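Per your request, structure below.
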């Protein structure tokens, strides 16, 4: 029994490690693909070379991040067959088709147009190349759509039937499965998180180069665009997060109890615990700093609304409170720092100091990885808060794992750690080298040569406009 528990724990750690590495790349590429489409569209519309410079600058980075995302994602699919074969067998009739749709739609769309986007600048016309860039951006959205549909179904399973052999079978409507109760909230929350992640990385790079040279046109433009995104999207994300939390309270109350640190029920209004140390042995939050009844106000919009606690949940069904409690606070804390950064940039614009306020630029550089930390923290809240289930409420994690020995899983986990840190560590190091180099102002037409398609040269106005 002890060896089985260790085997399951190691299998969970291995999947958590690989998916954490993978998740940071799509979280960046989803937003970056859209940013590239905006840059190319603005360049073609205005003819201003600064947009062409930035497109070329970020296109190189996108190519590397996209490649690392694909490679790291392939590994996870194998783990469904190696470490989680029972889950794959039982849930395969539902999640298998959804993941296949992701490949048939998103991946094929991205793969079909990615080559044109990366290497077709000299070989196709501007409209086709812009179409390819848009197609890749749409492909990243479609990919997120299907993957989040699968994950959301595992969080809020509906529309299924249990067959005689114990498999989950789709019911009368696939629409019920795809658009399960938590999916719309999770999709909006994740996409906004991806856009914020990209905005703060782009903003950090722009701020870094502004600290070196305040007159760099590319750095000024990317920093300004990133701060506009932070200003607009950060408050939207807070609102979306509130709706997502209310949905989670309805369908996964134990997760919200762990997020809030409510070991006990509160019949006359629950406090909002800002900080504290979860003590699961004594079932309390030690050294709690709290606001009376504020949790009821947020979750029920009523100061005196009762809120149930983990004392209403069987011990065997409780998620790990400490991990969920602190991951949630990291995510929310970073969200408010993002909001503060956006407001700070508004003040800088009003005072006409957006490009010459070093303290703002230094803070923006520090906030560069904040989006990645926030999405990982949110993923931990989502997945650890679902425990002890893989399919919430109906299939336990302990019943989902393959019958493997702990030493075998430990050996593969060690191999993953060594390979991942070596391969992806080098990739990230190279990305930082690219970001350290400022955008070059002489790249007026993306590569300095006319773009042709079937012998037709781009309109002279566009080429000449690239020097503006």
């Amino acid at each position: 029994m002890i060896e089985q528990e260790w085997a399951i724990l190691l299998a969970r750690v291995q999947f958590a490690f690989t998916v954490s590495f993978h998740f940071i790349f799509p979280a960046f590429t989803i937003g970056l693909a859209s940013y590239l489409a905006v840059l190319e569209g603005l360049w073609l519309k205005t003819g201003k070379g600064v947009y062409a410079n930035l497109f070329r600058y970020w296109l190189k980075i996108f190519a590397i991040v996209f490649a690392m995302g694909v490679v790291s994602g392939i590994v996870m699919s194998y783990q469904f067959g190696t470490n989680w074969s029972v889950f794959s067998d039982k849930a395969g009739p539902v999640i298998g088709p959804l993941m296949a749709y992701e490949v048939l739609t998103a991946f094929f769309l991205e793969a079909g147009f990615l080559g044109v986007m990366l290497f077709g600048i000299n070989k196709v016309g501007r409209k086709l190349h812009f179409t390819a860039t848009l197609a890749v951006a749409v492909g990243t959205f479609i990919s997120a759509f299907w993957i989040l549909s699968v994950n959301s179904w595992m969080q809020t399973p509906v529309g299924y039937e249990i067959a005689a052999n114990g498999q989950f079978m789709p019911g009368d409507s696939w629409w019920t499965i795809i658009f399960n109760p938590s999916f719309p909230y999770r999709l909006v929350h994740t996409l906004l998180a991806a856009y914020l992640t990209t905005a703060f990385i782009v903003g950090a790079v722009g701020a870094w180069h502004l600290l070196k040279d305040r007159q760099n046109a590319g750095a000024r433009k990317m920093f300004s665009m990133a701060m506009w995104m932070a200003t607009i999207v950060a408050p939207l994300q807070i609102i979306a997060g509130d709706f997502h939390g209310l949905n989670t309270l309805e369908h996964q109350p134990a997760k919200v109890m762990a997020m809030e640190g409510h070991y006990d029920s509160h019949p006359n209004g629950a406090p909002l615990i800002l900080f504290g140390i979860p003590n699961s042995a004594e079932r309390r939050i030690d050294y709690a700093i709290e606001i009376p009844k504020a949790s009821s106000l947020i979750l029920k919009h009523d100061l005196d609304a009762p809120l149930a606690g983990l004392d209403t949940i069987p011990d065997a069904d409780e998620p790990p409170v400490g991990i969920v409690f602190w991951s949630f606070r990291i995510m929310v804390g970073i969200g408010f720092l993002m909001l503060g950064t956006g407001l700070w940039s508004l003040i800088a614009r009003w005072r006409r100091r957006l490009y010459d306020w070093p303290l703002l630029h230094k803070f923006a550089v520090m906030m560069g990885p904040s989006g990645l930390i926030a999405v990982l923290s949110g993923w931990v809240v989502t997945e650890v808060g679902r425990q002890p289930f893989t399919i919430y409420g109906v299939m336990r994690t302990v019943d989902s794992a393959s019958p493997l020995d702990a030493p075998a899983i430990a050996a593969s986990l060690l191999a993953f750690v060594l390979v991942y840190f070596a391969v992806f560590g080098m990739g990230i190091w190279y990305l930082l080298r690219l970001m350290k180099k400022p955008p070059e102002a002489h790249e007026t037409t993306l590569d300095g040569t006319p773009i042709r398609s079937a012998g037709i040269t781009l309109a002279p106005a566009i080429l000449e406009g690239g020097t503006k």
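The radius of gyration is 24 Å.

Regards,
D.
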